[in-house]
Amino acid sequence: MKTKQKIILAALELFNEHGERNITTNHIAAHLGISPGNLYYHYRNKQEIIHAIFSVYSDELIDRFTPLQGQHESLTLLKHYLNSIFTLMWKYRFFYANLPEILQRDDKLHTDYIAVQDRLQANLIKIVRAFVELKLLDISEEDMPTISTTLHLVASTWLSYQSAMSLQTRITEQVIHKGMLQMISIVKPVATPIGLEQLELLEEGVQAMHIEGNDI
Predict the structure, then answer these.
(1) Are residue 1 and residue 100 in the same domain, yes or no?
(2) Which residues form the HTH tetR-type domain (predicted)?
């Protein structure tokens, strides 16, 4: 693995564990066992590292939420997208938890973020449309952007909302499970009988994971 990639992975681990504000480039270098000068050879400052992490995140986000082609069982599709939400929120939780602050101090990153989210929103509408065609959801074409935006809003702000609403700022998998259940609750009122059955199966699975996590 190249040093640049090791720096990104180490920074992501430290940002997630301790919060991005509490980690410096010296912390990252020490964690990797390299000199600060070696780190600066690859990234001039912490902000460049954050940009690199965002680039990796953006590629994964668009890849996971590009509508799947071919024939897939409806439950398989639902599980795929729900699992993608969990994976991204957990893997990049420092970014989700402090999104406004991170974006407000970096105009270039903010511009890039908006461009990626515009692409994501277009894909989300296509995904919702696919679920309508599968007769899992009963939504008019005019209402598709609204429900897509609502789902996007919950996914992108859930961790920062939870941090603001609790004195315990540590993000756990159980906090993300709650967000997944919240998104399922948004879709249930517009589900067809078949779609509701599938969503309830997903809901039971997430609740089981949440209970199991609390027992650990």
Answers:
(1) no
(2) 1-61
